[in-house]
Amino acid sequence: MIASLQRIRLIAANTFLEAVRQKFFSALLLISVGLIFSASFFQQFDFGTNELKFIIDFGFGAIFFFGSILAIAVMAQLFFNEIDSRTALTLLSKPVHRSEFLIGKFVGTQFLLLIFVFVLSLVLVAILFWRESILLSRFGNEARLDALLHYYDIFIFAGVQWVRFCVIGAFTLLICSFAKTYVYTLVTSLFVLIVCQLQYIAHEMYAQMDIGPVRLLVQLVSWTFPNFQLFNVGDQLVLVGSSSLSNAAIIHIIGYGCIYVITYIFLAYNNFRRREI
To answer: 103, 100, 89: which is closest to 173 by C-alpha?
Structure first.
């Protein structure tokens, strides 16, 4: 058991270092940080909301959008780099189990995503603190009730999104386990991401249908793909006066994500162990 964990740790560490060296990660991180910094500029166009709320929504949107792209692209690219360069064959010829290979790849990429969301969260906190200080100094007590923020909620949101990225990485790994090309994996994973984002529609249809084959089909779809609307908790966080996210809700979201992560990785292993490399 200890030897297995050691092998997983080494594979994860190597995966993380390889991912950090990729220009795609650096470029996406810089673009994300730049967009969050530019949130105050976009607020000048007046989208019908106060400045701090706009910056929060803009920053949360950037974390989700670019994090989702990174979770799919990095997982697929690192997996097929190992397959195409035949290093996976060399690695698996040693006393390394295929499950250890998959788990190591997954852990390495998710550690990269954790750093990604943490950096963006720090940038968002810095921008909000800067703009809040300006508003408080400019308007004094008049702005205090509207301006005060719960900054730790930003990291709660980041943690929830990281759980979502773990699910995205897990179903991307599942697709990698049977796909033959990087492009196919990328396109299919993006399609699955869209399905997960719209999965709440299946829930609404399921609730309105009578018992029958169509309802069973819709129910199967709703079970197969996670409902990513559960992870959209930004409106319940940060601003004073907004409805708070309870500890029970956070535990529910984490547990929900973990169930899908474990299931997808298990299915990925079942596919990968029968795959010829």
So the answer is: 103
Q: What is the pTM for the complete model shown?
A: 0.88
Confidence label for 147 from pLDDT (cuts 50, 70 and 90): very low
Q: How many domains is the chain built from?
A: 1
What pLDDT score does 102 carry? 93
Q: What are the tokens at 200?
A: 């709440």
Nearest to residue 205, comparing CAs of 226, 188, 220? 220
Q: Is residue 190 part of a domain?
A: yes
Q: How many CB atoms lie within 10 A of CB 122?
A: 14
pLDDT tens-digit series, residues 21-78: 888 888 888 888 888 877 766 655 555 457 778 888 888 999 999 999 999 999 999 9
Is residue 268 included in any domain, yes or no? yes
Domain region containing 48: 2-272
Please, what sign has the CA dihedral across residues 160, 163, 168, 169?
positive
Classify residue 7: in a domain, yes or no: yes
DSSP 38: T
